[in-house]
Write a structure and sequence with these properties.
alpha+beta, five-stranded parallel sheet, five-stranded antiparallel sheet, globular, binds flavin-adenine dinucleotide
Length: 666
């Protein structure tokens, strides 16, 4: 089946403008007859819900947390990109567009990325207008910093809490509409199926997570904003509750799933310390603005450090290998995430790792403390030769920029990162793959839309730092609220949709059967037992480096694990009560299917690109080797009963404005 991406024709810079001018917006007076369900109230969902309600639609929101403001989006630390060029360093819409396409290793759709770059500047205006406390310089102007894969400073931030502050802005906008009666918010509700009537999305089946009650909700359109699926790896930097259920359920009802194997492994996370762990912690990429990454240059020093016989501060400059600066002199420590992660793995695999497990490298602020300290001494007319004073002044600057991140590190690792370098290692962090959507952000099911991290649309095979928040808010505030009008225009005559339709009855029955199956299963192993096992298969065979043999093994092992899960899982408690184990069982069941499709997708893509690194396809110096002739397409999978039977559809990626090139950050 040919995928219709609905990208308007014409020059790239006119596409969105022309689209907006010609868009079939629903008559404002009639919007009050139209209901929209938004599943997910992270940054994407909250901003969309608030804007849709402002436009006049009736909105119902759903989230599984006890409040929309607890969505995973609050974890976002480092910042949000926008092509404002406030620093006068040569930024522009085109440059953000270009950086994002290149950063994604030429595997994203040009038109969507250009639109993202265009609306990026509106996001900052919108958030400032809402009162989001974005960081400012001494003179009161908005401040910026740099993130990986760019040579300009375009990242707006709120210390290390950017996601939280942005979400408070979107949540306040949403609350205003709740107060007006335009949004009905359902917290602690989990969507467990999509209801499709005559080929159109017409509602959802949700479980009240407190009472256990199964509910039917109808609407003229359903928007999925359910976030990413990185917890398929069990250990990740995601919030513990993040899951794939909403996206996977719509996939099973007809929405194609695109590029499931494109996952981001973030280079700067606190390393795994043992088998007991259930969560990994990110150290924001913003730290790479000032921190320098290194390992010992000699194997014997690395060994001595691992054995506790030497400390990192014992090594002189010449005994250190600043491997990112060495390999990528122009981008240095700000090389993109996929490249930096692989470089860390390469050094650790070669025996240079610095913690007990051998899987850690250093992120060191000693130079930054000196540099800032001397600058402050100069500004304040103090003695630049007073070593203790320089350290004190320098630390104060570092603390003002990254204080909460340093505190977090110290609490978890019990080491002071101001005096000894942080230890970091790559970890699963973001999923670029997701539901396939057209230019309107509509899935292959009419009336079912997908926004934010749950869709595949903008980041290709690797996302640049600070661009997930940008995409979530672009989709929510500026894109979906307008594109959805195109679909909804003919719906003004439809009238209310009954939840007594047979499709609702049938979907509810299936949901109840699945719940009963879990509760009545008399197995012996916990849900976590299976989730951990799945995570290990994924990390070992489908993680940072993949090969055909490992992927084939993973496919077999996941299918076998899924079978064992249904025989052996035990879910305590009852169906009609608050039962977190039951909720988890449903999510892990979906991960056990998604994981297999993920590996299948990785196996079929016989090339390396961005975060998808196939060991068989690399250059002599270990860089990813793309195959544009055969793989310059979006892989969109259609569900056919089992992940192994999924059918591949290809959306060719046509580059008219950017020349396909080998990605280089040297
Ligand atoms: C530690 C960390 C730091 C990060 N820092 C940055 C950063 O500095 N800059 C940046 O750009 N990006 C960053 N990211 C990525 C970014 O935070 C996410 O990509 C983004 O917040 C996702 O937003 P979202 O609205 O799409 O989804 P989420 O915020 O994940 O929200 C998902 C919503 O869906 C709901 N939901 C899910 N399933 C269901 C269901 N079945 N039924 C009902 N509700 C459901 C949830 O309750 C939730 O409300 C970071 C990520 C992490 C993990």
């Amino acid at each position: 089946m040919a995928l219709d991406s609905k990208v308007p024709s014409g020059p790239i810079s006119d596409k969105w403008i022309n689209y907006k001018n010609h868009i079939n917006l629903v008559n404002p007076a009639n919007k009050r007859n139209i209901d929209i369900i938004v599943v997910g109230t992270g940054l994407a969902g909250s901003s969309a819900a608030a804007t849709l309600a402002e436009l006049g639609y009736n909105v119902k929101t759903f989230c599984f947390q006890d409040s929309p403001r607890r969505a995973h989006s609050i974890a976002a630390q480092g910042g949000i990109n926008a092509a404002k060029n406030y620093q006068g360093d040569g930024d522009s819409t085109f440059r953000l567009f270009y950086d994002t396409i290149k950063g994604g290793d030429y595997r994203s759709r040009e038109a969507n990325v250009h639109r993202l770059a265009e609306v990026s500047t509106n996001i900052i205006d919108q958030c400032v207008m809402q009162g989001v406390p974005l960081a400012r310089e001494y003179g009161g102007l908005l401040d910026n910093r740099s993130f990986g894969g760019t040579l300009v400073a375009r990242t707006f931030y709120a210390k290390g809490q950017t996601g939280q502050q942005l979400l408070l802005g979107a949540y306040s906008a949403m609350n205003r509409q709740i107060g007006r009666g335009k949004i009905k918010s359902h917290a602690r509700h989990e969507m467990l199926d999509l209801v499709v009537v005559d080929g159109k999305a017409r509602g959802i089946i949700a479980r009240d997570l407190v009472s256990g009650e199964i509910e039917r909700h109808s609407a003229h359109a359903v928007v999925i904003a359910s976030g990413g699926y990185g917890n398929v790896f069990f250990l990740s930097t995601y919030a513990m509750g993040s899951n794939a259920t909403a996206a996977w359920k719509i996939h099973k009802k007809g929405a194609f799933f695109a590029n499931p194997c494109y996952t981001q492994i973030h280079p700067t996370c606190i390393p795994v310390s043992g088998d007991h762990q259930s969560k990994l912690t990110l150290m924001s990429e913003s730290l790479r603005n000032d921190g320098r990454i290194w390992v010992p240059a000699k194997l014997e020093d690395a060994k001595a450090i691992r054995e506790g016989k030497k400390k990192p501060t014992d090594l002189s400059e010449s005994e250190r290998d600043y491997y990112l600066e060495r390999r990528y002199p122009s981008f240095g420590n700000l090389a993109p995430r996929d490249i930096s992660s692989r470089a860390a793995k390469e050094r650790c695999d070669a025996g240079f790792g610095v913690n007990k497990t051998g899987e850690a490298v250093y992120l060191d602020f000693a130079d930054a403390i000196q540099r800032y300290g001397k600058e402050q001494a100069f500004i304040k007319g103090l003695d630049a030769n007073d070593a203790a004073l320089i350290i004190k002044l320098g630390r104060a600057v570092v603390a003002s920029k990254y204080g909460n991140l340093f505190q977090m590190y110290e609490k978890i690792v019990d080491e002071d990162p101001y005096t000894s370098p942080m230890m970091i290692y790559p970890a699963v962090h973001y999923t670029m793959g997701g539901t396939w959507v057209d230019y309107n952000l509509q899935t292959t099911i009419p009336g079912c839309f997908s926004i934010g991290e749950s869709n595949f649309s903008d980041h290709g095979a690797n996302r640049l730092g600070a661009s997930a928040l940008m995409q979530g808010l672009a989709d929510g505030y500026f894109v979906l609220p307008y594109t959805i009008g195109d679909y909804l225009a003919p719906e003004i005559k439809t009238g209310p949709i009954s939840t007594d339709l047979p499709e609702f009855v049938e979907a509810e029955k299936k949901v109840k059967e699945q719940i009963e199956r879990f509760i009545n299963n008399k197995g012996t192993k916990s849900v976590d037992y299976f989730h951990k096992k799945l995570g290990k298969i994924m990390w070992n065979n489908v993680g940072m480096a993949r090969n055909a043999q490992g992927l084939n093994e993973a496919i077999e092992e996941i299918a076998a694990l899924r079978e064992e899960f249904y025989k052996e899982v035990i879910v305590p408690g009852t169906a009609d009560s608050f039962n977190p184990e039951l909720a988890k069982a449903g999510r892990v069941a979906d991960f056990l299917e998604l994981g297999e499709l993920f590996a299948k997708d990785a196996l079929h893509r016989n090339e390396s690109c961005g975060g998808h690194f196939r060991e068989e396809y690399q250059t002599e110096d270990g860089e990813a080797q793309r195959d544009d002739e055969n793989f310059a397409y979006v892989a969109a999978w259609e569900y056919k009963g089992k992940p192994s039977d999924a059918v591949l559809h290809k959306e060719p990626l046509i580059y008219e404005n950017i020349k396909l090139a080998t990605r280089s950050y040297k």
